[in-house]
C-alpha cells in the first residue's frame, strides 16, 4: 500500500484551495479515504477513542447483504429468458446471460449517481457521503430487467437530485432515493414499468411473462407455485423475486445490527394482519390469497428488508419504528388487493410512510415532552 | 441501605492497564498550575502577580461573575508564570513549589457551633467552595443559591476509573465532618450514591446521608443518571453534587484549620508500565508521576481524567481540577490501508460488524484502544443506537439536533436541564457519524446558561 500512499501524498497539494485541480478536492478525498482510513485523532476534550465502525463499514455491510439477491436476480434474468424461449441452458450460461444484462444497469446507476454525488459534495465543500453505495445498487435491483438504460439513468438523476441533494444530501432526505427513482419510472414510463412484457429480458413467446401480482390484479389466480415464489424463479424486478435470497440479506442486516429489527418485524406483522383480514372477508380471489403469499410476491420482502429499514427515511424513534413498519405492511397489502391500478403496493406504501414518519416521530417525542411538562407542573404545585 | 437501583442500559468498556491497589506518595511536585478553564463559566480575576509569594490556601484568583468564589493555592511557593492563550484568556497560573509548606490558618472549628452562613464563609475563603458543582450546567454553584438536594458521587463507572474505597481509606472522620458541614450548609437531603461493589465500611457507615446503591453499567456512575432515579431536575431547579474524596478536604478544613490539598489519583491505561494509585497535591504537575512509568516506544496521549470525558494534557502538563484519574493511551495518528474493509479482529467496536463487537457478550477480554477516529465526520444516518447507551428518559438524537440548531425551547422541552456533556460520552464513542457529541451538548448547555442564567 506504500506506493498508493505516496501517490496520494504527491497529488494532495494539487487539489488544495486555489490550485488548478481544486475542483477535484472532494473526489480526491473520497478516493483517499476509500484507500486509507485517515489518521485523524480525537480532539483535546471529550471521548479520546472511537468505535472502529464508520459509514463505509456500515454501508458495505448493506451491500454484502444485497449480494445474494443480486446474484440470484442475475441468474433469474437468464433463467426467465431461456424459459420464455423454451430453450435449455446450463447453469453458467444462464447466469452469465443475466450477468451481462444486469451489469450495465449497475454501472449506469453507479456512474450517474456517483458523478452527481461527487459534484454536489464539491459544491458544498464536503466529503462525499457513502449513502449512494447502497442506493446505487438497490435502484437496478428494483427495476425490470427490460428497462432501457437511458430511462434508468434519468431516474437516477431525478432520484439523487430531487430525492436527496435538494434536501441537503445523505441524512437529510425524507424519502428513500431508490424509491424515488422507482416511482419516477413508474409514473413517467408506465408502459416500460408494468404490464406483462417487461419482466423478462428479450422475452420469447413460450410464456406470458406476467408476474403473480399482475395476474392477480386482472383477476386470474397466480400461475407460479408457492415454491417458485419462495426460491424466486418467477418474472419480476431483478432483485426482488427470491424470498430466500432476501432473507439471507435480512439475516446479515439483523445480526450486524445495521437494520432495525423493529421495522422489519412490524412490516411482516402488519402485512400478515391485513392479509388475514382480507382472508376473512374473502370477497374475491385476490382477497383469498393466503396472507403469507403476500410476503413472497412482488417487492414486499425486498422493501421490508432493504428499503423500509433505511434509517434516514424511516421513523427515528424506536416506538415510532413499530408504528411505521406496521402501517407499511398494512398499506402494502391494502393497495395491492383493493386498488387494481397499482399491482404493486409496497413501493407506494413505503413512500407514503416515509412522508408520515416525521409525524409519527413528532407524536412519540411529544409524549416525552408532555411527560416532562407534567412533572414540572406537579413540582411547581408542591413547592 | 435501600435496595439497589438497577440501570440496565449502558456499556462497560474494559481496557488494558488497570491499576494495582497500591498507593505511592508523590507529594512534592516542582510546580502546580491552576487552570481557570477547568471551571465552566468563570472569568478569572487575578489576586496575585508573577513573583508573589503564596502559601497553601492563599487566594490566587476569584470569579468575576461570583466575586466571593475564590480559588486558592494548594502549595506554598512563588507565582512563576501566568500563561495566556487567544484573546489573552488566562490558561494556566503556574506556582513553583518552595517546599516550605507554609499555610494560611483558617482556624479549627466545630460544625455544631457554626451557622450555615459561617460554614459558607469558611468554604469560600479557603477555596473549597469550588469543589461543589451544580446541575444543570456543571458550574460552581452561586453562593447565594441553595439546591433542592445534594448528591455525593461515591463511585465512578468510567473505564479504568479509581476504586473510591482506596481514595478515602482511613479518612472516615474527615468524611463525616464534611458531610455534616454540607448538611448544615444546605439543610437539604444528601444522597451518597454507591454501587453494589462498594463494601468499604468507611463509606457505608457514614451518617447524615441517604445511601443509595446503584447497579448496572456505565454511565450509571454519572450524576445525571442517578439524579433522574432520585428525582429528576425540572426547569428552574438546581441540585449540587460533590465527589466523595473532596469531602475529606472540607472535613479537614474544620478539623485542622488548613486547606488539605492532597488527593489520591489513579494512573492507568495501556501505555503505563506500572499502573497504580498516587497520593498527590491538587493541580499537580504530571512530570514526576509519569517519569519512567510510560511506554516511550509508541506515540502516546496523556489524558487528565478518563478516556471518555478527559482532557488531553502534555507529558509535563498539569492535573485538571476535578480529575482523580490520569489515563495514558496510544495516539492513533496512523493511516490504515482499506481499514474499513478489513475483518479487524483486534479493533475496539461494539458494533456487530466487527468480530470483537459481535462476540462482546461472550468475553470480557480488555480492548486495546487508540485515539484514531476510524473515519471522518458524516451526517447522522443511523438511529436508535444512542438510546442503547443513554439510560435516561431522553431522546438523545433529537436533543443533539436541537442543540445543533440552537433551538432553546426545543432543548428545554427535550430535557437539557437533566443532562450534561459527560452523559453523551458513550454516544460519541459509538457514533458512526464521528461527530463531537459532547461538545455539541456542552455548547447547547452554554447557550442555555448565557440566555437564561444559572
Major pleated sheet of chain A: none
Strand order of the largest sheet of chain B: 1-13-12-11-14-10
The average pLDDT score of chain B comes to: 92
Which residues of chain A form runs of ≥5 with pLDDT under 50? none
Q: Which class of secondary structure composition applies to the elements of chain B?
A: alpha/beta
Distance linking N and C termini of chain B: 34 Å
Give the uncertain stretches of chain B in residue-range form: none
Helix/strand/pairing class of chain A, anyone?
A: mainly alpha
Assign the CATH topology of the largest domain in chain A.
Answer: Ammonium transporter fold
Largest sheet of chain B: 6 strands, mixed
Number of strands of chain A: 1
Given the structure, what is the number of helices of chain B? 12
Percent in helix of chain A: 55-70%
Percent of residues in helices of chain B = 10-25%
Q: What is the beta-strand fraction of chain B?
A: 15-25%
Radius of gyration of chain A: 23 Å
Care to count the β-strands of chain B? 20
Strand content of chain A: under 5%
Number of domains of chain B: 2
Amino acid at each position: 500500500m506504500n506506493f498508493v500512499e505516496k501517490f496520494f501524498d504527491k497529488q494532495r497539494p494539487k487539489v488544495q484551495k486555489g490550485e488548478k485541480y481544486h475542483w477535484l478536492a472532494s473526489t480526491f478525498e473520497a478516493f483517499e479515504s476509500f484507500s486509507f482510513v485517515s489518521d485523524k485523532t480525537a480532539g483535546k476534550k471529550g471521548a479520546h477513542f472511537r468505535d472502529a465502525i464508520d459509514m463505509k463499514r456500515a454501508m458495505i455491510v448493506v451491500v454484502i447483504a444485497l449480494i445474494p439477491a443480486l446474484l440470484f436476480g442475475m441468474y433469474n434474468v437468464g433463467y426467465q429468458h431461456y424459459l420464455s424461449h423454451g430453450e435449455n441452458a446450463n447453469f453458467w450460461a444462464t447466469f452469465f446471460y443475466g450477468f451481462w444484462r444486469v451489469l450495465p444497469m449497475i454501472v449506469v446507476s453507479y456512474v450517474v449517481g456517483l458523478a452527481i454525488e461527487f459534484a454536489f459534495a464539491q459544491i458544498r465543500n464536503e466529503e462525499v457521503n457513502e449513502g449512494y453505495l447502497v442506493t446505487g445498487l438497490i435502484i437496478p435491483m428494483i427495476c425490470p430487467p427490460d428497462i432501457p438504460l437511458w430511462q434508468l439513468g434519468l431516474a437516477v438523476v431525478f432520484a439523487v437530485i430531487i430525492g436527496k441533494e435538494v434536501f441537503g444530501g445523505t441524512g437529510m432526505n425524507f424519502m428513500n432515493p431508490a424509491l424515488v427513482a422507482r416511482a419516477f419510472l413508474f409514473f413517467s414510463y408506465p408502459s416500460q414499468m408494468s404490464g406483462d412484457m417487461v419482466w423478462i429480458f428479450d422475452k420469447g413467446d413460450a410464456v406470458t411473462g406476467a408476474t403473480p401480482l399482475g395476474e392477480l390484479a386482472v383477476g386470474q389466480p397466480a400461475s407460479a407455485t408457492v415454491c417458485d415464489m419462495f426460491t424466486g424463479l418467477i418474472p419480476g424486478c431483478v432483485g426482488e423475486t427470491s424470498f430466500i435470497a432476501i432473507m439471507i440479506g435480512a439475516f446479515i442486516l439483523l445480526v450486524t445490527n445495521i437494520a432495525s429489527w423493529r421495522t422489519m418485524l412490524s412490516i411482516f406483522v402488519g402485512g400478515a394482519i391485513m392479509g388475514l383480514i382480507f382472508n376473512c372477508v374473502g370477497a374475491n380471489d385476490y382477497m383469498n390469497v393466503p396472507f403469507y403469499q403476500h410476503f413472497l410476491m412482488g417487492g414486499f420482502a425486498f422493501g421490508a428488508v432493504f428499503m423500509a429499514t433505511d434509517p434516514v427515511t424511516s421513523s427515528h424513534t424506536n416506538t415510532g419504528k413499530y408504528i411505521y413498519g406496521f402501517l407499511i405492511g398494512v398499506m402494502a397489502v391494502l393497495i395491492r388487493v383493493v386498488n387494481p391500478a397499482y399491482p404493486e403496493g409496497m413501493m407506494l406504501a413505503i413512500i407514503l410512510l416515509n412522508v408520515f414518519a416525521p409525524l409519527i416521530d413528532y407524536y412519540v417525542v411529544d409524549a416525552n415532552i408532555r411527560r416532562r411538562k407534567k412533572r414540572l407542573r406537579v413540582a411547581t404545585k408542591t413547592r | 441501605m435501600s435496595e439497589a437501583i438497577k440501570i440496565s442500559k449502558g456499556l462497560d468498556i474494559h481496557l488494558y492497564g488497570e491499576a494495582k491497589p497500591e498507593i505511592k506518595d508523590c507529594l512534592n511536585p516542582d510546580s502546580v498550575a491552576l487552570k481557570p478553564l477547568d471551571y465552566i463559566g468563570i472569568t478569572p480575576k487575578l489576586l496575585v502577580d508573577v513573583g508573589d509569594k503564596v502559601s497553601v490556601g492563599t487566594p490566587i484568583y476569584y470569579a468575576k461573575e461570583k466575586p466571593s468564589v475564590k480559588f486558592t493555592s494548594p502549595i506554598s511557593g512563588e507565582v512563576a508564570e501566568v500563561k495566556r492563550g487567544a484573546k489573552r484568556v488566562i490558561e494556566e497560573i503556574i506556582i513553583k513549589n518552595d517546599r516550605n509548606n507554609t499555610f494560611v490558618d483558617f482556624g479549627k472549628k466545630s460544625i455544631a457551633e457554626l451557622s450555615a452562613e459561617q460554614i459558607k464563609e469558611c468554604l469560600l475563603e479557603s477555596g473549597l467552595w469550588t469543589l461543589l458543582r451544580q446541575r444543570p450546567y456543571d458550574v460552581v454553584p452561586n453562593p447565594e443559591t441553595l439546591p433542592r438536594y445534594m448528591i455525593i458521587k461515591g463511585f465512578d463507572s468510567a473505564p479504568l476509573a479509581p476504586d473510591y474505597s482506596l481514595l478515602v481509606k482511613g479518612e472516615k472522620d474527615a468524611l463525616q465532618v464534611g458531610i455534616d458541614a454540607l448538611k448544615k450548609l444546605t439543610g437539604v437531603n444528601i444522597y451518597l450514591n454507591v454501587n453494589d461493589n462498594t463494601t468499604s465500611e468507611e463509606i457505608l457507615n457514614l451518617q447524615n446521608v441517604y445511601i443509595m446503591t446503584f447497579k448496572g453499567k456505565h454511565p450509571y456512575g454519572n450524576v445525571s443518571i442517578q439524579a433522574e432515579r432520585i428525582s429528576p431536575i425540572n426547569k428552574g431547579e438546581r441540585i449540587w453534587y460533590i465527589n466523595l474524596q473532596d469531602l475529606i478536604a472540607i472535613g479537614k478544613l474544620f478539623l485542622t484549620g488548613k486547606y488539605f490539598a492532597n488527593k489520591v489519583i489513579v494512573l492507568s491505561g495501556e501505555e503505563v508500565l506500572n499502573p497504580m494509585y498516587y497520593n498527590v497535591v491538587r493541580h499537580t504537575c504530571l512530570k514526576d508521576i509519569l517519569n519512567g512509568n510510560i511506554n516511550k516506544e509508541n506515540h502516546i496521549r496523556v489524558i487528565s481524567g478518563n478516556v471518555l470525558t478527559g482532557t488531553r494534557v502534555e507529558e509535563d502538563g498539569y492535573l485538571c481540577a476535578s480529575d482523580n484519574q490520569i489515563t495514558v493511551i496510544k495516539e492513533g495518528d496512523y493511516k490504515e490501508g482499506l481499514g474499513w474493509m478489513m475483518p479487524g479482529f483486534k479493533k475496539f467496536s461494539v458494533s456487530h460488524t466487527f468480530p470483537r463487537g459481535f462476540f462482546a457478550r461472550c468475553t470480557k477480554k480488555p480492548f486495546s484502544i487508540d485515539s484514531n477516529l476510524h473515519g471522518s465526520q458524516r451526517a447522522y444516518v443511523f438511529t436508535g443506537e444512542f438510546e442503547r447507551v443513554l439510560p435516561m428518559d431522553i431522546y438523545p438524537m433529537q436533543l443533539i439536533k436541537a442543540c445543533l440548531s440552537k433551538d432553546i425551547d426545543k432543548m428545554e422541552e427535550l430535557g437539557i436541564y437533566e443532562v450534561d456533556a459527560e452523559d453523551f460520552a458513550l454516544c460519541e464513542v459509538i457514533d458512526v457519524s464521528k461527530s463531537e457529541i459532547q461538545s455539541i451538548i456542552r455548547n447547547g448547555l452554554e447557550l442555555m446558561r448565557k440566555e437564561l442564567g444559572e
